[in-house]
Every structure is written in C-alpha cells, then in structure tokens.
Design brief:
The protein has 243 residues and is of the alpha/beta class. The protein contains ten helices and eight strands. It is globular. Bound molecules: 2-phosphoglycolic acid. The site of 2-phosphoglycolic acid has 13 residues, from β8.
C-alpha cells in the first residue's frame, strides 16, 4: 500500500519566526499515522528540522558540489536536515527552463544523497484544452522519473499547472483519470509501481481536501498557499488521516 503524505510547499515564503508553524504542526500531527512534510525555503531547513515534522527542499542541483553560484546540492539539503526534495515543480520548469532531463538528474541527485524525490508533473491549460493531458503526463513520467526510482525513494505529484495558486481545481473525474493513468504507467514500468505515493496538487484547501482524498489512487496532497499556516494546513492533514 502507498504511504499517505500531506506535503506543504512554502515556495518563497517564510522567515525564522515561522518555525512556530512547524512546532504547532508537530504538536498536532507528529503522532499522525501518515507522513507530514513541509518544504520551507532552504534558509529555514535546519531551523525547521528536528521538531517531528519531515522537512524537504524545493529544488536541488544535480551535482554534489562545485562552481554553481546560488545553487544547493541534495547533499547540502540532507546535511541541513531534509529528508525530501521537490523536483520539477512547474514554477521551476517555467521560471528556470528546467527540462525533463534536468529533473531526472536532480531526482537522481536526491537518491544519491538519500533523499526522497517528490517529482512534479502536470499539464498546462492549453494542453488540457487541446486534449493532450495524458500524452503530456506520459512524456513527463518517461523523461523526469529515473529508471532507478522506487516506491521508497520517489513520490509523484500530479499538479495541473492551471490549478496552482488559482483556486481552480479539476473535477474529481479529471483527477481520478490522471491518477489512474499514472498508477497504470508506474505499474507497467516498475516492479513496485503499485506502492508509489501519488499526490494531487493545485488549490487544495481544508474545504476540498476530503473529496479529493476520496478519489482512487490519490494518496495525499502537495499544498502551496494552504500550507503556510498551521490552521490552514491542519484540516488537510486530518482529512488525509481520515481518508
Ligand atoms: P497551491 O500550490 O496549493 O497554492 O495551488 C500548489 C503547489 O504549487 O505545489
């Protein structure tokens, strides 16, 4: 059975004082029977680690070290206390031109450092309207997910680009269709494909979490805006526990 994961992506938000959010989440959910992860900005990883909530990076460089000003390696994230790293978020694909090959290399760097990669895939609105969603998903799975991915070292997050930060959520049928497709393709490619945790991401909040978690093959969520405060994120964690 896939593990359930409630993951928060703080993006470029969070100062030292916001470690209090992690502490509150830990008080409420450290004993939850599911995995709870927050990916704060890299500047906060070491302050956020060690409180009972898993902590992850939002990106990493593919190399171990070297002349790459401003970049952070997977080993550095692990050294700071991270256990996970997001790779291939659509904002990285769009803002930094990251390709599927880049994302596969970053995911391999995560494995090398002992981190779990949370690999993000998802179609744009234009692609959805053109009817090419499943083709896009197939291409991203083939290109971004390394051959040595396992259910232990990889989580797949389906995040339609048009649903991120917009308040627009696909229908439950649309989410179910894509998740079933991802599951099928993982099962076809990997011996343990049935065990990968599959997340839905894009405008998840307390008010829609339970219905999304009831969709087959949805094992959790990757949450942006609604992960920034404990009071917004807690109901999502609780909904996943109860799903
Ligand atoms: P959102 O972001 O929950 O604010 O839509 C999701 C994400 O980008 O991971």
């Amino acid at each position: 059975m896939p593990r359930k994961l409630a993951a928060g992506n703080w993006k470029m938000n969070g100062l030292e004082q916001d470690v209090s959010v992690i502490k509150t989440l830990a008080e409420r959910h450290a004993q939850a029977g599911i995995d709870v992860l927050i990916c704060p900005p890299a500047t906060m990883i070491s302050a956020c680690a060690g409180h009972g909530i898993a902590v992850g990076g939002q990106d990493c460089h593919a190399a171990v070290s070297g002349a790459h000003t401003g970049d952070i390696s997977a080993e550095m994230l692990a050294d700071a206390g991270a256990t996970h790293v997001i790779t291939g978020h659509s904002e990285r694909r769009a803002d930094h031109g990251e390709t599927d090959a880049d994302i596969a290399a970053k995911s391999q760097a995560a494995y090398r450092a002992g981190l779990k990669a949370v690999i993000c895939i998802g179609e744009t609105l234009g692609q959805r309207e053109a009817g090419t969603t499943l083709e896009i998903i197939d291409g991203q799975l083939a290109g971004s997910v390394p051959d040595d991915a396992t259910a232990e070292n990889t989580v797949i997050a389906y995040e339609p680009v048009w649903a991120i930060g917009t308040g627009k959520v696909p229908t439950l049928e649309q989410i179910g269709e894509v998740h079933a497709h991802i599951r099928q393709s993982l099962v076809a490619r990997f011996g343990d494909g049935a065990g990968f945790t599959l997340l839905y991401g894009g405008s998840v909040k307390g008010s829609n979490a339970a219905e999304i978690f009831a969709v087959a093959e949805v094992n959790g969520a990757l949450v942006g805006g609604a992960s920034l405060t404990a009071d917004d994120f807690s109901p999502i964690v609780t909904a996943l526990e109860q799903a």
